[in-house]
Design a protein that fits this description.
165 residues, mainly alpha, 5 helices, Four Helix Bundle (Hemerythrin (Met), subunit A)
Length: 165
């Protein structure tokens, strides 16, 4: 199903986070000397975009979903995952991750995003009418306006290298 225009801003932010996950997975195994650069990039993306993204979902999208009994268990899962992901981002901020926990993080975040996109967003588009989706979209845009427009660019240590020579 095509994404409703009112949910697209969240989907765009999901794409940014998925790009980080893909880069981490492709760079694995992460060299010990590069772990600090990866953690710094994760922390920057969390501060600039993901904290506000989580706030928008938790304050606007999840309460709308909880109006439907069949979505309540999914929302509880997603809230628990946000809690776990916040801990992982805090570990990155504290430079407490290892190459292995960094790759685990990428898998966890990627699975979380896909669950939101494939299960929550799809179901909400089926259950809510256009007026309700427009109201949610308006509220999401207000909260997401707080997110930094700055792009997180890879550093020399986190830039993917071509395997072709």
């Amino acid at each position: 199903m095509l994404r409703n225009k009112n949910l697209i801003p969240l989907s765009h932010q999901h794409q940014h986070a998925l790009a980080l996950c893909v880069r981490i997975e492709r760079a694995a195994p992460i060299a010990e000397e590069n772990i600090g650069a990866w953690q710094a990039e994760m922390a920057q993306q969390f501060r600039q975009e993901i904290t506000i993204h989580f706030k928008a979902e938790e304050e606007i999208l999840f309460p709308a979903a909880c109006r439907f009994d069949d979505l309540v268990p999914l929302v509880h899962e997603l809230v628990a995952e946000h809690h776990s992901l916040r801990k992982q981002f805090a570990a990155a901020e504290d430079h407490a991750m290892t190459p292995a926990t960094l790759v685990d993080f990428a898998h966890t975040l990627s699975a979380h995003i896909r669950k939101e996109e494939r299960q929550l967003f799809e179901r909400l588009q089926q259950l809510l009418d256009e007026e309700q989706l427009t109201e949610i979209g308006t509220r999401l845009n207000e909260v997401l306006a707080e997110a930094s427009g700055a792009c997180v660019l890879p550093t020399e240590a986190t830039r993917l290298r071509s395997t072709k020579r």
